[in-house]
Amino acid sequence: MKVSVLVPALLGLAASVQAVNIEYTTVKGFFLQDETSTDPSTFDYTAVNFGLINRTYPTDHLLKHLSDYNTLTQWERFYHQVRELNEWSPRDVEYKVLFLGRHGEGWHNAAESYYGTPAWNCYWAELNGNSSATWFDASLTNNGIAQALTAHTFWQKEIDEQRIHTPDNYFVSPLLRTLQTANLTFTGLSLPKGSAAFNPTIKELFREGISIHTCDHRHNRSTIHSLFPSWPIEPGFSEEDELWNGVTAETSDAQDARSAKALGEVFFTSASSKKDMFVSVTSHSGEISSILRVIGHRAFSLNTGAIIPVLIRAKKQGDQHATTSSVPWTVSAHCTVPPVTSASACVCPSSAAPVTTLLSA
């Protein structure tokens, strides 16, 4: 029996999301990842200076009086350009550079490759693991650890050679693979004098798209705190995961509403918010894709462990009150026993009817 897992039926279920009325725009012309000619599948952020385009800026002339002008790096001149954009923008406009980092390879990624995507989606992903691996709130594989350490090495190279301005704020998804990736990427870097310390805020709304897969089910707050006790967890973070239930899943529209709310809690946060121009968000492929949709960026898939910066213009709209949107969620039918697989679809054995209930691992 064929099971449709990619186009599930809509139910009368919805998530209510409050968001400040902000319009986001990608400011193009600064990064290769903004250009349609850049192929995401072959993009290597470590080979192209995070994708920063080698170009002049309108504000370069303001720096020519400096004695070391001829030795300023591309990132130093870019930082000045963003600072000037903020200084000359009205109060209701902010510019920030978001460093969107995808976690390194997790055990769920390895399992999907092993079983194949159709079988993974409609059976194996609903379990906590198999006899050799656990993918409930998946941790990093050895390859994923290596990818995060590659990011660490590259950040240090950019600090030493490009004198890049390191993030003023750090945020990380609460799922284990992102927590581990952020820790390996940023802990122990030799940061420039005066830089913000790496002390990331664990933020619920930057998590992966919430599906019925157990890899999207986070550990409880107490466990997360015990693993990273010095990292602040945002106010209101629940002990149990109240968003995942193994039965219903976010639609893209629901996730985009969540991403917009998350971004609204990064922009316009204080009177000095314009000074916190560089922001790191360690997250997931699906959530980064959602953020890119919200800010009007072209689709750009990241390999595990990859990082892209984007320059964002945020403008508050006329109504400054928070708005509430209600977006339907979905259910997905899945098999109760290992499926018969094919390259393009998942098929349950004839004796096994698909279900829309939580599977026991």
Automatic annotation (TrEMBL):
The keyword Signal is assigned to this record: yes
> By its UniProt entry, which Pfam families does this protein fall under?
His_Phos_1 (PF00300)
Q: SUPFAM superfamilies attached here?
A: Phosphoglycerate mutase-like (SSF53254)
Q: Which InterPro entries match?
A: His_Pase_superF_clade-1, His_PPase_superfam, PGM_Phosphatase
Alphabetized UniProt keyword annotations: Signal
Gene3D superfamilies from the xrefs?
Answer: Phosphoglycerate mutase-like (3.40.50.1240)
Report which superkingdom the organism of origin falls in. Answer: Eukaryota
MF (Gene Ontology): phosphatase activity
Question: Which residues, if any, are the signal sequence?
Answer: 1-19
GO cellular component term, pick one: cytoplasm
Q: Which segments does the entry list as coiled coil?
A: none
Q: What CDD domains does the record point to? A: HP_PGM_like (cd07067)
Q: Does the keyword Nucleus apply?
A: no
The entry's protein name is GPI anchored protein
Taxonomic path? Eukaryota, Fungi, Dikarya, Ascomycota, Pezizomycotina
